[in-house]
């Protein structure tokens, strides 16, 4: 593993940092409070190439490596995790899934628009009774010859009301278990497809999370991704890379909180000195910095594995498991360092603390990451 970032990596990192500070920071508190989707900011992210970073330039993407993606995700998540989850889902689940497994027609029709941010996508695996236990899909995609008849409910879907394209996982042959599952590209506006109410959440409140209902939706056969019955493996392989994105989101939330805590500790005085002069505060900062550095190295390791075409399901799971724990611990301590000011919205750290929690839940809970890691170890 090469620890040196290239000129290109540093340029991407600087561009993401600049975008986060100038475009995301103003208004982030208000968007969180009013659960307002960052529409204008996401549009600009598309223009700057942050929504299809790793997609081949032939399909309108940036042709960058996963390391660049991790660096950009960290910078954007330092400021606005609601914006970075849009970026993560679009890049590493939707674009990657279609680019890796889609047909040329699907790439021309959907990927070219998704990669430039002209439209955004959603990834729909979870159901009311199939979260961690993802093979228990109740949504059905009945084979009707030249189309699938889609029926069921998905819940917790990120970009639920803003997406134009939805990758929907559904059961075609229940008797075959996970080998009977398919992945279909569903378009917004297909008859029988409705978007449910928006969830009122603890964190990432700017992100639109919805349930989706499918009632006799006719999805053309050419919208199936991969071979008949490939849908569950499609979901698992796609999520393996998605977890690198969420790990970097957690890393960014942690490092954003640490930067704020460090600054505040040098400004705030108590007992006649800056609180940074008290060893109890110094030790909190030392622990934060050490944990964040370890989380960053795990994220970069997983990214290097992916770029080197090595198996990255275990390193991605380790990065997500560890970085999300660090995000929780760091944000709690950042609030503590801010004292009472940490408990109010103006100082940002309370939002980062609320946002951190989701990184231990979505794209596989921490317990699921441990299942993935231990199965690899015991193989
Ligand atoms: N790559 C390829 N295939 C894989 C795989 C991988 N990484 N992981 C599993 N598979 C295959 C297995 O080989 C197996 O196939 P075969 O029987 O043909 O060998 C098949 O998938 C089923 O695997 P398991 O028997 O291991 O299945 P399981 O029921 O024990 O579940 C699990 C495994 C890892 C727990 C899985 O269900 C899982 O990942 N659950 C969590 C779901 C999740 O992460 N949801 C996220 C939703 S998206 C989201 O959250 C987005 C967002 O918030 C922004
Ligand atoms: P459950 O699976 O019911 O788990 C409950 C608890 O039991 C957890 O602590 C879990 O770790 C534990 N548990 C379950 N099984 C085991 C086991 N075998 N061993 C040990 N512990 C276990 N899904 C999508 O498909 N697309 C999205 O875009 C998306 N976005 C989301 C956005 C938000 C804000 C949220 C909250 C969720 C989102 N999800 C999305 C769903 C998310 O992936 C699931 O919530 C997650 O996978 C957990 O599923 P569950 O909520 O059903 O919890």
From TrEMBL:
InterPro entries assigned: Acyl-CoA_DH_CS (IPR006089), Acyl-CoA_Oxase/DH_mid-dom (IPR006091), Acyl-CoA_Oxase/DH_mid-dom_sf (IPR046373), AcylCo_DH-like_C (IPR036250), AcylCo_DH/oxidase_C (IPR009075), AcylCoA_DH/ox_N (IPR013786), AcylCoA_DH/ox_N_sf (IPR037069), AcylCoA_DH/oxidase_NM_dom_sf (IPR009100)
Domain of life: Bacteria
Pfam families, per the entry: Acyl-CoA_dh_1, Acyl-CoA_dh_M, Acyl-CoA_dh_N
Cross-referenced Gene3D superfamilies: Acyl-CoA dehydrogenase/oxidase, N-terminal domain, Butyryl-CoA Dehydrogenase, subunit A, domain 2, Butyryl-CoA Dehydrogenase, subunit A, domain 3
EC number(s) recorded for this UniProt protein: 1.3.8.10
Molecular function terms, GO-annotated: acyl-CoA dehydrogenase activity; flavin adenine dinucleotide binding
Chain segments annotated as coiled-coil in the UniProt record: none
Name this polypeptide is given: Cyclohex-1-ene-1-carbonyl-CoA dehydrogenase
Family according to the record: Belongs to the acyl-CoA dehydrogenase family.
Domain Acyl-CoA oxidase/dehydrogenase middle residue range list: 122-217
Residue stretches making up the Acyl-CoA dehydrogenase/oxidase N-terminal domain: 6-118
Cofactor(s), names only, from the UniProt record: FAD
Entry-linked PROSITE patterns: ACYL_COA_DH_1 (PS00072), ACYL_COA_DH_2 (PS00073)
Domain Acyl-CoA dehydrogenase/oxidase C-terminal: 231-377
């Amino acid at each position: 593993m090469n620890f040196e970032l290239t000129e290109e990596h540093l340029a991407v990192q600087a561009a993401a940092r600049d975008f986060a500070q100038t475009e995301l920071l103003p208004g982030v508190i208000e968007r969180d409070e009013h659960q307002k989707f960052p529409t204008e900011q996401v549009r600009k992210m598309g223009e700057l190439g942050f929504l299809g970073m790793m997609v081949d330039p032939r399909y309108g993407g940036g042709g960058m490596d996963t390391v660049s993606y991790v660096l950009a995700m960290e910078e954007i998540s330092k400021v606005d995790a609601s914006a970075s989850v849009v970026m993560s889902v679009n890049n590493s689940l939707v674009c990657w899934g279609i680019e890796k497994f889609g047909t040329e027609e699907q790439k021309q029709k959907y990927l070219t628009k998704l990669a430039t941010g002209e439209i955004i996508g959603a990834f729909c695996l979870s159901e009311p009774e199939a979260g961690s236990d993802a093979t228990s899909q109740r949504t059905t995609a009945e084979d009707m010859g030249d189309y699938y008849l889609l029926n069921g409910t998905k819940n917790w879907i990120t970009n639920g009301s803003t997406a134009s394209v939805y990758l929907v996982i559904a059961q075609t042959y229940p008797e075959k278990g996970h080998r009977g599952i398919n992945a279909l590209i569903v378009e917004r506006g297909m008859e029988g497809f409705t978007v449910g109410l928006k969830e009122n959440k603890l964190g990432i409140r700017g992100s639109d999370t919805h349930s989706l209902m499918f009632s006799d939706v006719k999805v053309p056969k050419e919208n199936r991704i991969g071979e008949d019955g490939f849908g569950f493996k499609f979901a698992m392989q796609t999520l393996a890379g998605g977890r690198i994105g969420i790990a970097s989101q957690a890393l960014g939330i942690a490092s954003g909180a640490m930067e704020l805590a460090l600054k505040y500790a040098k400004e705030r005085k108590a007992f006649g000195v800056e609180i940074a002069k008290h060893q109890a505060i110094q030790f909190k900062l030392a622990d934060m910095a050490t944990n964040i550095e370890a989380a960053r190295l795990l994220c970069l390791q997983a990214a290097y594995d992916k770029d080197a075409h090595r198996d990255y399901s275990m390193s991605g799971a380790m990065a997500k498991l560890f970085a999300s724990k660090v995000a929780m611990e760091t944000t709690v301590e950042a609030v503590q360092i801010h004292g009472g000011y940490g408990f109010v919205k103006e100082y940002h750290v309370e939002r980062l603390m609320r946002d951190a929690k989701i990184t231990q839940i979505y794209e596989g809970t921490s317990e699921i990451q441990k299942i993935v890691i231990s199965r690899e170890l015991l193989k």
